[in-house]
Amino acid sequence: GENxxxxxxxxxxxxxxxxxxxxxxxxxxxNYFPWYKQELGxxxxxIIDIRSNVGEKKDQRIAVTLNKTAKHFSLHITETQPxxxxxxxxxxxxxxxxKLTFGQGTILTVHP
Amino acid sequence: DGGITQSPKYxxxxxxxxxxxxCEQNLNHDAMYWYRQDPGQGLRLIYYSQIxxxxxxxxIAEGYSVSREKKESFPLTVTSAQKNPTAFYxxxxxxxxxxxxxxxxxxxxxx
Lengths: 112, 111
What we know:
- The complex is a heterodimer.
- By secondary structure, chain A is mainly beta.
- Chain A is built from no helices and eleven strands.
- In chain A, a hairpin with a 4-residue loop joins β7 and β8.
- Helices cover 0% and strands 50% of the residues of chain B.
- In chain B, a hairpin with a 6-residue loop joins β9 (87-94) and β10 (101-102).
């Protein structure tokens, strides 16, 4: 089955800096890659997603890149703000199973 | 997301008892999922269902059971066979090939 590895497990940045979180996946059949943000005690919320026919997608301060050959994808947050502090999860879904597998999560802390 | 309702928010049970967690959605989504989240860890898939009256085991199905008799409902039973049932349980739903929408979760404590 699909295996998703996420790094780093914790990330601390100063307000205004950029943050990058990286994920790798194992199943070449994966064609959908969402990113979720989870605040303490709350449900995960989708922040951006990308499909395998696209190499990059951007939404304001957030961007995701996908390298299908290397089987990795990354989340980029620019001009970070304290309210960006949360746990971020990447995930991958093979078209063959429809099963979404998550990475272990990254705790992002943005210091004012 | 108001379209997915999990109840109750907090649940306490004694060891050895079965307990059923409720998940209802009014989004007309075909697929529904149950994930388990432990402190400091990611989301692990317990069971998922892509259509009524059909479901598949996820990565950690042992000690759990589900049913999908109606499109709107996907209850999860945590049985006494589950060795470490205390966790945060998240239900989600989606249309085919679209993002998952999560409920607010149920925090289960077994003592």
